[in-house]
Amino acid sequence: MKRIILTGGGTAGHVTPNLALIPRLQKEGWDVRYIGSKNGIEKELIEELKIPYYPISSGKLRRYKDIKNLTDPFKVLAGGAEALNLIARLKPSIIFSKGGYVTVPVAAAGWFLRVPIIIHESDITPGLANKLVFPFAKKICANFPETLEYIPTKRGILTGTPIREELFLGNAQTGRKICGFDNNKPVIMMMGGSLGSVIMNSILRKLVPILTEPFNIIHICGKYNKKDSLEGTKGYKQFEYVKEELPHLFAAADLIISRAGANSISEILSLKKPNILIPLSEKASRGDQILNARSFYKQGFSERLEEQELTEESLFQTIMELYRNRQKYITAMEKSDTVNGIEKIMELIRTHGKK
Question: Do the beta carbons of residue 151 and residue 127 sit within 8 Å?
Protein backbone atom coordinates (compact mmCIF):
# COMPACT_ATOMS: atom_id res chain seq x y z
CA MET A 1 0.00 0.00 0.00
CA LYS A 2 1.25 3.49 -0.87
CA ARG A 3 2.01 5.59 2.18
CA ILE A 4 1.81 9.37 2.52
CA ILE A 5 2.81 11.58 5.43
CA LEU A 6 0.77 14.74 5.91
CA THR A 7 2.11 17.56 8.05
CA GLY A 8 0.91 21.00 9.04
CA GLY A 9 -0.36 22.65 12.17
CA GLY A 10 -0.40 25.38 14.73
CA THR A 11 -3.66 26.90 13.46
CA ALA A 12 -6.80 25.47 11.89
CA GLY A 13 -5.79 27.04 8.58
CA HIS A 14 -2.78 24.73 8.42
CA VAL A 15 -4.89 21.65 9.10
CA THR A 16 -8.23 22.10 7.29
CA PRO A 17 -6.87 21.44 3.76
CA ASN A 18 -5.25 18.24 5.04
CA LEU A 19 -8.60 17.19 6.52
CA ALA A 20 -10.15 17.74 3.09
CA LEU A 21 -7.53 15.55 1.39
CA ILE A 22 -7.68 12.60 3.78
CA PRO A 23 -10.98 11.00 2.58
CA ARG A 24 -9.84 11.16 -1.04
CA LEU A 25 -6.43 9.71 -0.21
CA GLN A 26 -8.05 6.84 1.67
CA LYS A 27 -10.50 6.25 -1.16
CA GLU A 28 -7.58 5.86 -3.56
CA GLY A 29 -5.85 3.36 -1.29
CA TRP A 30 -3.23 5.51 0.43
CA ASP A 31 -2.03 4.67 3.94
CA VAL A 32 -2.22 8.11 5.60
CA ARG A 33 0.04 9.09 8.50
CA TYR A 34 0.34 12.50 10.17
CA ILE A 35 3.29 14.26 11.80
CA GLY A 36 2.33 17.28 13.90
CA SER A 37 3.20 19.18 17.04
CA LYS A 38 2.70 17.88 20.55
CA ASN A 39 0.09 20.41 21.62
CA GLY A 40 -1.27 21.94 18.42
CA ILE A 41 -4.88 21.99 17.26
CA GLU A 42 -4.01 19.39 14.62
CA LYS A 43 -3.50 16.63 17.21
CA GLU A 44 -7.14 16.49 18.30
CA LEU A 45 -8.52 17.00 14.78
CA ILE A 46 -6.45 14.22 13.24
CA GLU A 47 -6.90 11.73 16.09
CA GLU A 48 -10.69 12.15 15.74
CA LEU A 49 -10.30 10.61 12.27
CA LYS A 50 -8.36 7.61 13.66
CA ILE A 51 -5.33 8.56 11.56
CA PRO A 52 -2.00 7.50 13.14
CA TYR A 53 -0.54 10.69 14.63
CA TYR A 54 3.13 11.22 15.48
CA PRO A 55 3.91 14.28 17.65
CA ILE A 56 7.34 15.89 17.42
CA SER A 57 9.05 18.83 19.09
CA SER A 58 8.54 22.17 17.36
CA GLY A 59 9.58 25.74 18.01
CA LYS A 60 8.12 28.95 16.72
CA LEU A 61 10.14 30.94 14.18
CA ARG A 62 9.78 34.62 15.00
CA ARG A 63 10.69 37.78 13.12
CA TYR A 64 10.70 39.76 16.38
CA LYS A 65 12.71 39.73 19.62
CA ASP A 66 11.55 37.27 22.25
CA ILE A 67 13.29 35.37 25.03
CA LYS A 68 12.01 32.11 23.50
CA ASN A 69 14.18 32.78 20.44
CA LEU A 70 17.03 31.44 22.58
CA THR A 71 15.38 28.06 23.19
CA ASP A 72 13.07 27.40 20.25
CA PRO A 73 15.88 26.69 17.73
CA PHE A 74 16.84 23.72 19.91
CA LYS A 75 13.24 22.48 19.74
CA VAL A 76 13.40 22.69 15.95
CA LEU A 77 16.63 20.67 15.96
CA ALA A 78 15.07 18.09 18.28
CA GLY A 79 12.03 17.94 16.00
CA GLY A 80 14.33 17.37 13.04
CA ALA A 81 15.94 14.37 14.72
CA GLU A 82 12.54 12.96 15.69
CA ALA A 83 11.18 13.50 12.16
CA LEU A 84 14.26 11.87 10.64
CA ASN A 85 13.72 8.77 12.76
CA LEU A 86 9.98 8.63 11.97
CA ILE A 87 10.33 9.10 8.22
CA ALA A 88 13.14 6.53 8.01
CA ARG A 89 10.89 4.06 9.84
CA LEU A 90 7.63 4.83 8.00
CA LYS A 91 9.22 4.93 4.52
CA PRO A 92 6.55 7.12 2.85
CA SER A 93 6.21 7.50 -0.91
CA ILE A 94 5.66 11.25 -0.52
CA ILE A 95 5.15 14.04 2.04
CA PHE A 96 2.44 16.72 1.73
CA SER A 97 3.23 19.81 3.82
CA LYS A 98 0.59 22.44 4.57
CA GLY A 99 2.58 24.98 6.55
CA GLY A 100 3.12 25.94 10.16
CA TYR A 101 6.31 25.71 12.20
CA VAL A 102 6.10 21.95 12.73
CA THR A 103 6.57 21.39 8.98
CA VAL A 104 10.14 22.78 8.90
CA PRO A 105 11.85 19.80 10.59
CA VAL A 106 9.57 17.35 8.74
CA ALA A 107 10.37 18.78 5.30
CA ALA A 108 14.09 19.01 6.07
CA ALA A 109 14.18 15.39 7.23
CA GLY A 110 12.17 14.23 4.22
CA TRP A 111 14.51 16.02 1.83
CA PHE A 112 17.55 14.48 3.55
CA LEU A 113 16.01 11.02 3.11
CA ARG A 114 15.12 11.81 -0.53
CA VAL A 115 11.37 11.60 -0.05
CA PRO A 116 9.47 13.79 -2.56
CA ILE A 117 7.76 16.75 -0.90
CA ILE A 118 4.77 18.80 -2.08
CA ILE A 119 4.01 22.06 -0.28
CA HIS A 120 0.76 24.01 -0.24
CA GLU A 121 0.51 27.77 0.40
CA SER A 122 -2.98 29.13 1.05
CA ASP A 123 -2.24 32.85 1.36
CA ILE A 124 -0.99 35.27 -1.28
CA THR A 125 2.34 35.90 0.46
CA PRO A 126 4.04 32.76 1.80
CA GLY A 127 4.47 32.38 5.53
CA LEU A 128 7.93 32.11 7.04
CA ALA A 129 7.76 28.34 7.61
CA ASN A 130 6.84 27.67 3.98
CA LYS A 131 9.55 30.02 2.72
CA LEU A 132 12.12 28.01 4.66
CA VAL A 133 11.00 24.70 3.16
CA PHE A 134 10.54 25.84 -0.46
CA PRO A 135 14.05 24.57 -1.39
CA PHE A 136 13.06 21.04 -0.32
CA ALA A 137 9.94 20.81 -2.50
CA LYS A 138 9.27 19.08 -5.81
CA LYS A 139 6.16 21.20 -6.34
CA ILE A 140 4.64 24.17 -4.51
CA CYS A 141 0.87 24.54 -4.77
CA ALA A 142 -0.65 28.04 -4.73
CA ASN A 143 -4.16 29.20 -3.95
CA PHE A 144 -3.83 32.61 -5.63
CA PRO A 145 -2.33 33.56 -9.02
CA GLU A 146 -0.31 36.30 -7.30
CA THR A 147 1.48 33.75 -5.09
CA LEU A 148 3.36 32.33 -8.08
CA GLU A 149 5.50 35.49 -8.08
CA TYR A 150 6.98 34.42 -4.72
CA ILE A 151 7.69 30.80 -5.68
CA PRO A 152 10.90 29.49 -7.30
CA THR A 153 10.59 29.20 -11.09
CA LYS A 154 9.01 26.06 -12.57
CA ARG A 155 8.04 24.58 -9.19
CA GLY A 156 4.94 26.68 -8.55
CA ILE A 157 1.53 25.50 -9.74
CA LEU A 158 -1.89 27.10 -9.29
CA THR A 159 -4.12 24.45 -7.71
CA GLY A 160 -6.51 26.21 -5.35
CA THR A 161 -7.19 24.81 -1.89
CA PRO A 162 -8.65 21.37 -1.08
CA ILE A 163 -12.27 21.75 0.01
CA ARG A 164 -14.05 19.37 2.40
CA GLU A 165 -16.40 17.13 0.41
CA GLU A 166 -19.20 17.40 2.97
CA LEU A 167 -19.61 21.12 2.26
CA PHE A 168 -21.08 20.23 -1.14
CA LEU A 169 -23.69 17.93 0.43
CA GLY A 170 -25.76 20.54 2.26
CA ASN A 171 -29.50 20.98 1.76
CA ALA A 172 -30.94 24.50 1.70
CA GLN A 173 -34.32 23.49 3.14
CA THR A 174 -32.61 21.64 5.98
CA GLY A 175 -30.57 24.77 6.67
CA ARG A 176 -33.70 26.92 6.79
CA LYS A 177 -35.38 24.41 9.10
CA ILE A 178 -32.38 24.44 11.48
CA CYS A 179 -32.74 28.22 11.71
CA GLY A 180 -36.53 28.24 11.99
CA PHE A 181 -37.01 30.30 8.84
CA ASP A 182 -40.56 29.72 7.58
CA ASN A 183 -40.59 32.08 4.59
CA ASN A 184 -38.84 32.40 1.24
CA LYS A 185 -36.80 35.51 1.99
CA PRO A 186 -33.16 35.33 0.81
CA VAL A 187 -30.62 34.44 3.49
CA ILE A 188 -27.54 36.37 4.61
CA MET A 189 -24.92 34.44 6.58
CA MET A 190 -22.20 36.24 8.56
CA MET A 191 -19.09 34.39 9.76
CA GLY A 192 -16.54 36.23 11.89
CA GLY A 193 -14.15 33.36 12.57
CA SER A 194 -14.07 30.85 15.43
CA LEU A 195 -13.72 33.59 18.06
CA GLY A 196 -16.05 35.98 16.29
CA SER A 197 -15.46 39.64 15.51
CA VAL A 198 -16.59 42.34 17.93
CA ILE A 199 -16.99 45.00 15.25
CA MET A 200 -18.73 42.73 12.72
CA ASN A 201 -21.10 41.36 15.37
CA SER A 202 -21.94 44.83 16.64
CA ILE A 203 -22.64 46.39 13.22
CA LEU A 204 -24.76 43.46 12.02
CA ARG A 205 -26.86 43.41 15.19
CA LYS A 206 -27.62 47.12 14.86
CA LEU A 207 -28.94 46.36 11.36
CA VAL A 208 -31.15 43.42 12.40
CA PRO A 209 -34.43 45.45 12.54
CA ILE A 210 -33.84 46.76 9.00
CA LEU A 211 -32.26 43.70 7.39
CA THR A 212 -34.85 41.19 8.62
CA GLU A 213 -37.50 42.92 6.52
CA PRO A 214 -36.03 41.78 3.15
CA PHE A 215 -33.73 38.99 4.44
CA ASN A 216 -33.30 36.17 6.92
CA ILE A 217 -30.00 36.30 8.82
CA ILE A 218 -27.73 33.47 9.98
CA HIS A 219 -25.15 34.89 12.38
CA ILE A 220 -22.18 32.70 13.39
CA CYS A 221 -20.96 35.06 16.09
CA GLY A 222 -18.16 33.13 17.83
CA LYS A 223 -17.76 31.55 21.24
CA TYR A 224 -19.40 33.42 24.15
CA ASN A 225 -20.71 36.10 21.75
CA LYS A 226 -24.43 35.27 21.60
CA LYS A 227 -26.71 38.15 22.55
CA ASP A 228 -29.58 36.94 24.72
CA SER A 229 -31.79 39.92 23.92
CA LEU A 230 -31.90 38.86 20.25
CA GLU A 231 -32.87 35.24 20.94
CA GLY A 232 -36.21 34.48 19.30
CA THR A 233 -36.04 37.43 16.90
CA LYS A 234 -37.96 36.41 13.77
CA GLY A 235 -35.69 36.03 10.77
CA TYR A 236 -32.48 36.10 12.85
CA LYS A 237 -30.65 33.02 14.13
CA GLN A 238 -27.36 33.20 15.99
CA PHE A 239 -24.85 30.41 16.62
CA GLU A 240 -21.64 30.51 18.65
CA TYR A 241 -20.13 27.77 16.50
CA VAL A 242 -21.34 25.25 13.96
CA LYS A 243 -19.92 21.95 12.75
CA GLU A 244 -22.35 19.33 11.41
CA GLU A 245 -24.86 22.06 10.49
CA LEU A 246 -22.41 24.08 8.38
CA PRO A 247 -23.03 22.40 4.97
CA HIS A 248 -26.77 23.01 5.34
CA LEU A 249 -26.29 26.62 6.44
CA PHE A 250 -23.98 27.24 3.47
CA ALA A 251 -26.60 25.73 1.16
CA ALA A 252 -29.31 27.98 2.61
CA ALA A 253 -27.22 31.16 2.30
CA ASP A 254 -27.70 33.46 -0.68
CA LEU A 255 -25.08 35.98 0.48
CA ILE A 256 -22.14 35.57 2.84
CA ILE A 257 -20.30 38.15 4.94
CA SER A 258 -16.96 36.83 6.14
CA ARG A 259 -13.43 37.50 7.25
CA ALA A 260 -10.90 36.87 4.48
CA GLY A 261 -8.97 33.86 5.76
CA ALA A 262 -7.71 31.80 2.83
CA ASN A 263 -9.57 28.60 3.66
CA SER A 264 -12.90 30.30 4.36
CA ILE A 265 -12.89 32.30 1.15
CA SER A 266 -11.81 29.26 -0.85
CA GLU A 267 -14.88 27.43 0.48
CA ILE A 268 -17.07 30.40 -0.45
CA LEU A 269 -15.60 30.41 -3.96
CA SER A 270 -16.15 26.67 -4.39
CA LEU A 271 -19.79 27.04 -3.34
CA LYS A 272 -20.18 30.11 -5.60
CA LYS A 273 -21.76 32.29 -2.95
CA PRO A 274 -21.80 36.08 -3.56
CA ASN A 275 -19.91 37.57 -0.65
CA ILE A 276 -18.59 40.58 1.22
CA LEU A 277 -15.10 40.17 2.69
CA ILE A 278 -14.06 42.15 5.76
CA PRO A 279 -10.36 41.35 6.30
CA LEU A 280 -8.55 41.56 9.60
CA SER A 281 -6.65 44.82 9.90
CA GLU A 282 -2.87 44.91 9.51
CA LYS A 283 -2.60 45.58 13.25
CA ALA A 284 -4.31 42.26 13.99
CA SER A 285 -2.47 40.14 11.40
CA ARG A 286 0.46 40.12 8.98
CA GLY A 287 -1.83 41.65 6.36
CA ASP A 288 -2.57 38.41 4.49
CA GLN A 289 -6.36 38.79 4.77
CA ILE A 290 -6.20 42.26 3.23
CA LEU A 291 -4.29 40.86 0.24
CA ASN A 292 -6.66 37.88 -0.02
CA ALA A 293 -9.68 40.19 -0.12
CA ARG A 294 -8.07 42.45 -2.72
CA SER A 295 -7.38 39.48 -4.96
CA PHE A 296 -10.95 38.18 -4.77
CA TYR A 297 -12.30 41.69 -5.41
CA LYS A 298 -9.96 42.09 -8.40
CA GLN A 299 -11.12 38.75 -9.84
CA GLY A 300 -14.76 39.78 -9.47
CA PHE A 301 -15.62 37.16 -6.83
CA SER A 302 -16.32 39.51 -3.92
CA GLU A 303 -17.12 42.91 -2.56
CA ARG A 304 -14.83 44.08 0.23
CA LEU A 305 -14.94 46.46 3.15
CA GLU A 306 -11.87 47.34 5.21
CA GLU A 307 -12.50 47.44 8.96
CA GLN A 308 -11.98 51.20 9.06
CA GLU A 309 -14.73 51.58 6.42
CA LEU A 310 -17.21 49.37 8.27
CA THR A 311 -20.31 51.25 9.46
CA GLU A 312 -24.02 50.44 9.57
CA GLU A 313 -24.54 52.49 6.41
CA SER A 314 -21.60 51.04 4.44
CA LEU A 315 -22.52 47.45 5.30
CA PHE A 316 -26.20 47.93 4.46
CA GLN A 317 -25.43 49.60 1.12
CA THR A 318 -22.88 46.92 0.19
CA ILE A 319 -25.33 44.12 1.06
CA MET A 320 -28.06 45.65 -1.10
CA GLU A 321 -25.69 46.24 -4.01
CA LEU A 322 -24.30 42.71 -3.76
CA TYR A 323 -27.78 41.19 -3.78
CA ARG A 324 -28.91 43.27 -6.78
CA ASN A 325 -25.83 42.20 -8.77
CA ARG A 326 -25.44 38.70 -7.32
CA GLN A 327 -25.46 36.92 -10.68
CA LYS A 328 -22.40 38.91 -11.79
CA TYR A 329 -20.37 37.46 -8.91
CA ILE A 330 -21.68 33.94 -9.45
CA THR A 331 -20.70 34.10 -13.14
CA ALA A 332 -17.16 35.25 -12.25
CA MET A 333 -16.76 32.42 -9.72
CA GLU A 334 -18.01 29.86 -12.23
CA LYS A 335 -15.14 30.84 -14.54
CA SER A 336 -12.46 30.32 -11.88
CA ASP A 337 -9.78 27.63 -12.37
CA THR A 338 -9.21 27.26 -8.63
CA VAL A 339 -12.63 26.17 -7.39
CA ASN A 340 -11.43 23.02 -5.58
CA GLY A 341 -7.79 21.99 -5.38
CA ILE A 342 -8.29 18.31 -4.58
CA GLU A 343 -8.09 17.01 -8.17
CA LYS A 344 -4.93 18.94 -9.09
CA ILE A 345 -3.20 18.12 -5.82
CA MET A 346 -4.07 14.42 -6.05
CA GLU A 347 -2.59 14.36 -9.56
CA LEU A 348 0.66 15.84 -8.21
CA ILE A 349 0.74 13.27 -5.40
CA ARG A 350 0.24 10.41 -7.87
CA THR A 351 2.87 11.79 -10.25
CA HIS A 352 5.63 12.58 -7.78
CA GLY A 353 5.18 9.83 -5.18
CA LYS A 354 7.94 7.22 -5.20
CA LYS A 355 6.74 4.08 -6.92
Answer: no
